[in-house]
User: Fold this.
Amino acid sequence: MQEQIEMHNKKVISSLPRSIKPPSSPFYNWFRSYVRSLTSAGSDDAQSNRMVMIGWVAVIGFPLYGWIWSVAYPQPYENFALRFLGVALALPLLFARRMQKKRWMAGYSYVALTYMAPYFFTFMFLMNDGSSVWAQSLLIAVVALFLFDGLFATISWLVGTTLAYLTFVAVIGRIGWPSSAILVNLPIDIFAILLVSVSKVSRRIIEEEKLNGMAAVLGSISHELRTPLLSVHASAKGLKQYVPTLVDFYKKHSDLAIGAERLPSRQLEMTLPAIERIQAEVQSMNSAIDLLLVNAGRAREKPQLVNVFSVKDVMERAVAWYPFESDKYRALVTLDIKTDFKIEANEDLMSMVIVNLLKNALRAVARARKGDIRIVVEAKGHGGRITIRDTGCGIPADQMAHIFTRFHSYPAHEGTGIGLAFCRETLASWGAKIICRSEEGAFCEFVMLFKALGNAAPERV
Assistant:
């Protein structure tokens, strides 16, 4: 009977449709990676990523929907000249991430977005006498616009809508109040704007509540842990002060010890190293508590005490301070100071950034059961660079776009997902930046780029 059930199950399983694997062509892989990089929430380039996506939508959508509304489902009014102008304005946005540092890019993006969203759709809405097709199209354009910064979107919407109405008046040759069919859509658009704005505020509130809750819990835990740790540290310090004297005394008078009083010489020699290990473990636990507390904070929202210091000094201190599990793990780390440089930042937070990245690298090596870690410090152009590279398990391509996203962790069960977000925000508060390169199963490297003292931006890689 059991064999019949197993045979039946095998037949059922074999009859199920096999999962269809996506094509693995180079173009598909590039396209998937490109789209994921554009949808990386929390990225430093989030605004530029949105501009790129808007650019693609405009380049494809303007001519496509021009054909749809003039041939497939004709509307009363169509204007291909305005559509092709929108395409021309959208083309530079496809390269927004590369040109985000250009001084003119912010102003250009504002002009292009104002034309493509509120101006074009409001004008076409008015020229089509408020038809349902253009009412819905305008609503979608307004929602897309307010996904950007609230003040930026509000100014763009007011300016674009005003210019569209003035153009409408110039085309029809008279000044008149819009019909009720047009005006009835205004409250709907305003409601959509408020809804999007509230949604954005709600996401920020939820994130702040998560951070505040985490900080409160960690604060309580750290308070409870530090008291016994302080007691253990004080006891170990006292033992370290007197045990060597007791050991020396015992060695001199060991001939007086008989039976159970006689101690093995090997265990006697291990007494002092054991005390040192206790102190190291206490330091390790205190370091872990400090790291969690700092990660739960938001460096960019808090005033920092900054000063000019040598990167070489802080790097050597951070590596020496790191609580390695054993000498074996310490031997995996190589610190290579090619050329020293100075930065203006907070030394304690800088140490925490290095410890965060070093901790992740050690986890990657341990997970892969292979590899080592190399830290390189070098002056670069008019700034400096710190590279932390491990040859452990690497990061999958589908995770790369999200590694700096707050509360996103990989693997999901490891960590709180705030370490790399903390690193990015802390570095950004000093005008520096961090990027990541990785290949799954091969390596992962984090590169920190620092501006030269007095410069406005860090060097590019």
